[in-house]
Design brief:
The chain has 335 residues and is an alpha+beta fold. The protein has one domain. It is built from five helices and nine strands, in the order ααααβββββββββα. The chain has a five-stranded mixed sheet. A hairpin with a 4-residue loop joins strand 8 and strand 9. The chain is globular and about 85 Å long.
Length: 335
Amino acid sequence: MRSPALPRISASGFGRRGPRAGFTLVELLVVIAIIGVLIGLLLPAVQAARESARRIQCTNNLRQIGLAAVNYESAKKFLVPAFLGDNSLISQAGGYNSWPTWAALLLPYMEEKTLADLWDLKRVVAAQVPAAYQTPVKSYSCPSRLPPVLSESDFATPGGTTSDYAASFGTLVTPASDTTFSQANGAVVPAIAKIGPADAKGPVLLSSKHQVSVGKVTDGTSKTAMFGEKWISATEPRGRNGDASIYSGIRNTQRRMMGFSVPENGSRKLLTPTYGAGEVPISVAGSYFGGPHSGITIFGFADGHVQSLSNAAAIEVLTALATRNGGEAVDTNGL
């Protein structure tokens, strides 16, 4: 008797399963969570690396400014002045006019000859061709801050380009009665001007007498600040007040002070970006140094070297570094 026929089963079918549906919801959530943790771990490191690169670029900017100032002194036998001329045109009709500032005077020594050739140093800034005062200079801007803009409510409309660096004027704002700026005790102070009659283009600078030679920096060029990062209030729009054009007659935009001021009976410390304009110890908010970098402000010194100072540096130290001939002894190592 024959056995009933059995169904044929292919050997290739053994062990085969149906198609898998893919990740389960739990597996997907685990993968997303892992990716999120990795991003959380990597993002601060990436941001820190970017800020480190920006800080290095800012340091290089101040080094370029400092070397230009050293070359200026070598050529002129005097330190670069804060500005030529006087304050006679400030707040008069036409806005905050100024004679050329240190930012214009250093251009020939910063590989900016084409831009320097646009300037007529015997004329006020508003009499220059707009390209002279509106063209940004890369080395004048810190990459940790907003890009430069043209200033508002200034000597012209639109005004001039901005900068994140200022000259060290000393410890105090000189009163208007001090027309020779004899009380300015920093490394970068104005030159004494002889101004001739105005012509169709405005007043003419006949001569300008520089005031500070290296010999007058008796505290030592390596211990006297020359340029530094400006403190700019985060609550103020870019391009106004203390952040106006680097060529403006608004003096706080081109020079700053630090340390103890005897006439003002107050101190200027280094400010962090978190300070508001109404929180500063002395009322002139635009007169402070302070960088956008965490915990430090970068300075260029009169010998050309660049150094970061702790924002917690003592007032006595800042006073010593701000003055060119105060007779203070200060150790800058570890600041």
